[in-house]
Amino acid sequence: MSEMIELEIPIEPERYELQALPTYIFKVDRRNFLKIFGTGIFVVSVLDHTAIGQDRAGQGESGRRGGRAALPKEIGAWLRIDENGDVTVFTGKVEIGQDIRTTLTQIVSEELTVPVKSIQLVMGDTDLTPFDQGTFGSQSTPQMGPQLRRAAAAAREVLIEQAADEWKVSRDSLSAADGRIINTLTKKTVTFGQLAKGQKIVKLISDSAPTVPADKWKTAGASIPKINGRDFVTGKHQYTPDIKRPGMLYGKVVRPSAFNATLVSADASKAKAVSGVTVVQDGNFIGVAAPRQDLAASAAEMVKAEWNAPQQPSSKDLFSYLKSKGAQATPAYSSGSMTDGLAAADIKGEATFTIAYIAHAPLEPRSAVAEWDADGKLTVWTGSQRPFGVRGELAQAFHIPEEKVRVIIPDTGSGYGGKHTGDAAIEAARLAKAAGKPVKVTWTREEEFTWAYFRPGGVIDITSGVKKDGTITAWEFHNYNSGPSGITSKYEIPNQKIVFHQSDSPLRQGSYRGLAATANHFAREAYIDELAHAVNMDALEFRMKNLKDPRQIAVLEAAATKFGWGKIKNERGHACGLAIGFEKGGYLAVCAEVTADVSTGKVKVVRAVQSFECGAIVNPDHLKNQMEGAIMMGLGGALFEAINFENGKILNNHFSQYRVPRFNDMPQIEIVLVDRKDLPSAGAGETPLMGIAPAVANAIFNATGIRLRSLPMVPNGLKPNTDTKPPVAIR
Amino acid sequence: MARITELHVNGATRRLDVDSERSLLSVLRDDLDLTGSKYGCGEGQCGACTVLINGQATRSCITQVGDIATKPIVTIEGLEKNGKLHPLQEAFLEADAMQCAYCTSGMIMSGVSLLTKNPNPNLQEIIAGMQGNICRCGTHPRIVAAITMAAQKIKGGAK
């Protein structure tokens, strides 16, 4: 048995300033790995200082800090090659339908030259995988991708060195292919498994090992199907609500009468009298656990609770409320002077856009199975995007160290930014603790629509000026509450003032796929269209005139060409619109064709062509799938999705009352992928959602002359809108 | 209260002892460990719980076991025969007609029911047949493609 230890951590002053711990990390990890997994070849990816900085700075997208981790935060991911030649990759990222399991497998396969079927990803298990801040922000491909790429590349180099030692030959004559090292001179081969057998090799890497350039990719860059797809089409995959533990009970929480309500009194005597039912009352929490779900539900109904709820704002007052509560803030971006910019304009205008709260409505509702062992260790299976964040929440809720909590995330029935918190996990764990048995809590759809958090509502005010020749001279943009993502654009405008104003949200709000970039793109691109119309310029030509970024221009041209922009004649009731976008490293353009009839109120998006560029594409078909899905999902928020609420209660908490896109909402969707193999891969889960709403808004205007400045645009069908004043000539 | 003591699921008779008013979905999932059928809304609005009863797509979450106890039930777990997937399951894989795939079981069961009634559905017929199933990830175009592909496979004798 040999033991090889390597340290390849560059020492530079910044590292010491941030975290001078590489040696210490190594000792801790080596011990842990060897203890848990015995023999094999291990490659550990240590985050470089930039990544650590981002990790620390970016803690609070939603929910609380992740807290202290058992494995140091400086470890990004690690992989193991065992004596069968199988590769196990450990990453704190989770699979929620974005197909990142497949993407990351492809990346490892490419560098290690092993078939995808020999690679298993262990994801989002706080006892086994390194700390990870969470799966959001389209960061898995750009951040975890490179880490696994270099870990796999380093593993390949270790294997080559091993073979060179064993055969007493120069490593120059050796290469890796198909899970083997080959001596290109003698044709002798040895499998990875044979090289790993009986070894204890741990290699830490933090610099860039030589990796395969994108234009030479074979497995990465290919449309590999969903890696465990068969388990999903057969119903075999177990999501959290499908998990059953020995002796498990079903939990049900007694919900407050309204948001922010406090418990005045509760009489649970009837519920407690039911055989097998456990009732827990702890502060504001009341819940029951029972041997069956229907028994738990009926026991919860037997609890007579009295709540005291404060008066709260309602959706009809939402936008004036948000604006009145908006805080002053320093601009996110400013340049030149708005006074000068407006003075230079021939035409100017002002507009207000509004954005409703919407629900994520993941088809798998929040769910958790919690189990305490005899030593007081808590294990929770739950669908979440932040396994370590949920662990932190549990540790905090139960006053136990994080080492006493294990959170495991089965591949989850989507999240869309809605599963950052551990609500169901805490509920299940509280009930399990009282019952002394494992407990599963699965939220009903009504609970999901009510007690989850929402995409923030908001108000956006724009003031702008443009010259007759189409040059935008001034752009002032204020977003109240919905958020700062995507608040700036690629338009070249000399005088700008762009401000995000935090406000006081009447509802619990949080992350959402694309965050506020959807709202900001909607307002911006719809108003850009108004400016183009005011100067009698074609929407495409007007945008081209005000853009310089070649990547933004390239995607716009790609979409316009595929769509046949200008070839489809706009007519009453049937017209086209376009929009562009840039966010999270991805460039977007959308052309939409709609039919719209104000007499019937009907709007139908008949065709959408969307182009996207996010650097080198790892899996073209899955990228296409994400983009198609983003358009479909985006249509909901664009046309009809809105949470209606009144005095602390949600008024439409069922699918029968909250309309989501269905098959008959589906346009003909065409996707144009712009593959830039010379650029690093950016994430693609979110940005493709941002362009459909403004493209449809602009098409509706071209079909009807109606400007719609609210998301959703047609919740009760298309209606004339007399509130919108177009930009006007001032000379 | 009436008791149900057997159900005919996926070609087998399953013994159990449940209240006839329980939802078929909860009995399948919690009593028979057939968790392929999913809870999505409990109100027959999303289709994630869809199973076949007498070959007909049925929302198991709003079906009481007492009403279907004598009828043949097929769940997603019962489509695969001797290790061979149903052509629509194959088509879902080939079209990669899923993302999070939580809706997939229900989509496939609704699709199988549709193809049984109409072996060669056009786009409008597929939309009408699948309208009651929600896919929140937005894979609708791929699901349509998979159903079309499966129709071809079945016609070609793949079954």
Quaternary organization: heterodimer
Low-confidence regions of chain A: 1-31, 49-71
Distance from first to last alpha carbon of chain B? 43 Å
Question: What would you report as the Rg of chain B, rounded to the nearest angstrom?
Answer: 15 Å
Strand adjacency order, main sheet of chain B: 2-1-5-3-4
The proportion of strand residues of chain B reads 15-25%
Strand percentage of chain A lies at 15-25%
Number of DSSP E strands of chain A: 31
List the chains of the largest interface with their residue counts.
Answer: A-B, 56 and 56 residues
Overall helicity of chain B = 25-40%
Q: How can the largest sheet of chain B be summarized?
A: 5 strands, mixed
Number of strands of chain B: 5
Global shape of chain B: globular
Ranges of chain B where pLDDT stays below 50 over 5 or more residues in a row are none
Helix-strand topology string of chain B? EEHEEHEHHHH
Derived from helix and strand composition plus strand pairing, the structural class of chain B reads alpha+beta
Overview of this protein structure:
The complex is a heterodimer of chains A (731) and B (159). With 731 residues, chain A is α/β, with parallel strands linked by helices. Chain A is 29% helix and 24% strand. In chain A, helix 4 (100-112) packs parallel to helix 5 (140-167), helix 12 (387-398) packs across helix 13 (423-435) and helix 18 (620-639) crosses helix 19 (692-704). The model of chain A is unreliable at 1-31 and 49-71 (pLDDT under 50). Chain B has helices at 24-31, 65-68, 87-94, 104-117, 123-130, 140-155, and strands spanning 3-9, 12-19, 50-53, 56-59, 72-74. The radius of gyration of chain B is 15 Å and the shape is globular. The longest helix of chain B is centred in the C-terminal third of the chain and has 16 residues, at 140-155. Chain B has a 5-stranded mixed β-sheet, with helices on both faces. With 159 residues, chain B is α+β, with helices and mostly antiparallel strands. The relative contact order of chain B is 0.16. Helices cover 36% and strands 16% of the residues of chain B. At the A-B interface, helix 7 and helix 18 of A face helix 1, helix 3, helix 4, helix 5 and helix 6 of B.
